[in-house]
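Async update (no meeting this week)

Hi team, since we skipped the sync, here's where things stand on the single-chain job. The sequence we agreed to prioritize is pasted below, unchanged from the tracker. I ran it this morning and attached the output directly underneath so nobody has to dig for it. Comments welcome in thread, and please keep replies under the output.
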Amino acid sequence: MLTREQLKAVRKIQIHTSHLVTDVFAGQYQSVFKGRGMEFAEVRHYLPGDEVRTIDWNVTARTGIPHVKRFTEERELTVMLLVDASASTRFGSVRQFKQELAAELAAVLAYSAITNNDKVGLVIFSDRIELALPPRKGNRHVLRVIREILNHRPQGRGTDIPLALDHLNRVTRRRSVVFLLSDFLAADLRRPLKVANRRHDLVAVVLEDPRDVELPPMGLLALEDPESGETFVVDTSDAALREQFRRRQRAARIERDRFLRSLDIDAIDISTDRPYAQALLRFFRERERRGH
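Output:
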């Protein structure tokens, strides 16, 4: 059972994100993510201007009156949210933890999906599959998705993105829109991302914090690797050390962005120190412009 504070946090996210979807994202989402094609709707009488190739010759022969087949766009999609719950996401130096940011982003994406009558599924992972919810529709289901992301207490500390993608490929037979929400502090991702993107429409949502790139000048700091538990002391008053850290982290970010582009995977960079609405809107508009 959720505590009063947890219920309050879930309700706050629900109100904020549902307004964003209603006012901003619902139309953008629909224009960017299309259905799988066309599905048969009905047979009706031929009308002047109808294409000859749509004539249903069987019905026409049986009735002696020209009939055509009418099709509608098969709009319904399956949206899968893969959310990283490793120890490194329980960190944030400004407005909120990456984990809390992931819950809000997942809520926006989930509400956008159900507003367009799509199904939403959830996989929470660390170095193991922590939780899996099959795709469903409806507000109650979205509220559960938010609650699980916000309040789940993971058993694992590490990050295993290949495991999460392999689980997705095994349990999801139809092509889906997949949002992978992670800080991507992991190696050897090229092949699993390439395979997943071939089967699905994969979007990388990169969760970042300013301290991932910049160390503040605060003297001696005792730091802990959240995933390995290893601790070490760093002299952050050393300007050369801070510059070395900044260059190494920026180079890693540039390399990550480069290999995502090489795999034709869209990426959305979201930071804990900035509102995420503009970053999402930029993604939707850029993707629509490209006609992805």
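Quick observations from my side:
The chain has two domains: 4-33+76-290, 37-74.
The mean pLDDT is 86.
Reply here if anything looks off.
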